[in-house]
Specification:
The protein is mainly alpha-helical. It contains 12 helices and 3 strands, in the order E-E-E-H-H-H-H-H-H-H-H-H-H-H-H. The protein has one domain: Cytochrome p450-Terp, domain 2, CATH 1.10.230. The chain has a 3-stranded antiparallel beta sheet. Helix 3 crosses helix 11, helix 6 packs antiparallel against helix 11 and helix 9 runs antiparallel to helix 10. The relative contact order is 0.16.
């Protein structure tokens, strides 16, 4: 018979097993949801420092106001109030290169550079600056985009960035990804001719990578965080809806222009 192995979980008539533990007697009430999410993704329990950074990042990404993801969720809920899952899914599907996806994009970008640097233990700020400048110059020469730089609202600095870096440092989790990200913040004005803030989604990616999360799953953690925010938006939409107003505003101001004849 075919086998379908999994190390996640299973159940029988009397028990539920998760990650090699009895769910009811060994996990419920004894671990946080953040610890479980980390454990599920890595198959290892986080250190206290890793867990602190991970949960801080989740909080930082939970909501950012009326972003397209939140608006999409609210409009979908207005269209189909019987489908809460559809509204949440609509919001999550908007997590891409401009919103939420930057977390993974930045983590992958930094990780690709860090892997090529070898042992960086004890590096000085000057060494990190040199590595960052070389990496940015190569990216620019290839016409690539530098993820994690700039923010549509926080033009003068994202308030989340220094706090997450400080938490990682205090927790003993600050590593090469955050060091490189900080160096990018220092050297990019010389290359780009302007100063852009290191955004919260970018620092989240760097921090999660240093905390030992798989860099190719980082978007999933951003979506995990934003799910909580979307539930909040939908709870608010039930009490104080904006969906009907947004729909009516666009509909009333739509301008029909027939296509130009070929």
């Amino acid at each position: 018979m075919a086998e379908y192995p999994t190390a996640i979980g299973t159940s029988d008539t009397e028990s539920i097993s998760l990650l090699g533990h009895d769910l009811a007697s060994e996990l419920l009430g004894k671990i946080s949801f953040g610890e479980l999410a980390y454990w599920l993704a890595t198959k290892r329990r986080p250190t206290p420092g890793q867990l602190r950074v991970f949960e801080a990042v989740l909080v930082s990404l939970a909501d950012h106001g009326f972003t397209p993801t939140a608006i999409a969720a609210r409009l979908t809920y207005y269209s189909a109030p019987d489908s809460l899952q559809g509204a949440i899914a609509a919001g999550l599907l908007g997590g891409g290169s401009r919103f939420l996806g930057v977390t993974e994009d930045t983590g992958l970008y930094l990780h690709g550079i860090v892997e090529g640097l070898g042992d960086t233990t004890g590096w000085s700020a000057e060494q990190w600056d040199s590595a960052a400048l070389a990496a940015l110059s190569e990216t620019r020469a290839q016409g690539g985009k530098i993820p994690g730089l700039g923010h549509p609202v926080h033009k003068n600095g994202d308030p989340r960035t220094p706090v997450i870096i400080a938490i990682a440092e205090e927790s003993g989790v600050k590593g090469p990804h955050l060091e490189l990200f900080e160096a990018i913040g220092r050297v990019h004005p010389d290359l780009l001719g302007r100063t852009l803030p290191l955004n919260g989604a970018g620092v989240a990616g760097a921090a999660l990578a240093d905390a030992g999360l798989p860099v190719d799953l980082l978007r999933g953690f951003a979506l995990l965080a934003r799910t909580a925010g979307l539930i909040g938006h939908l709870a608010e939409e039930r009490e104080n809806p904006i969906g009907p107003t947004v729909y009516a505003e666009v509909d009333r101001n739509a301008v029909y222009r027939p296509p130009t004849a070929p």
